[in-house]
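Quick note —
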Amino acid sequence: MFNDEQKAAVQKYIRSGGGFVGIHAAADTEYGWPWYNKMVGAWFASHPKQQVAKLIVKDKEHASTQHLPGVWERKDEWYNYKNINPDVKTLITIDEKSYEGGKNGDFHPMAWYHNFEGGRVFIPV
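Predicted structure written out below.
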């Protein structure tokens, strides 16, 4: 958990054009800091057992996804999210019909990015 000084430093960094890449548990922290949730784009809610699922590439033009097939099957620990920021640009969603335990329904982003308060944020699968 960040203290007040560290929170101010992160905000200053982002607001001065800094970038943030959040991997795996980046969405599973700072639950008492709404600014962080909006920056990251969502908070972790839960996850089922590891299993194979189908990912749907929504943006084939982005550098991070242009090499991927339209439907990408892989095994992982699939996060369910809460408080999803509607301003994020979704790169990949997950087909909840392809595995057990999804809780976000038809809109279940798994990778996204957005500009945020002067900085840039990227959340890969």
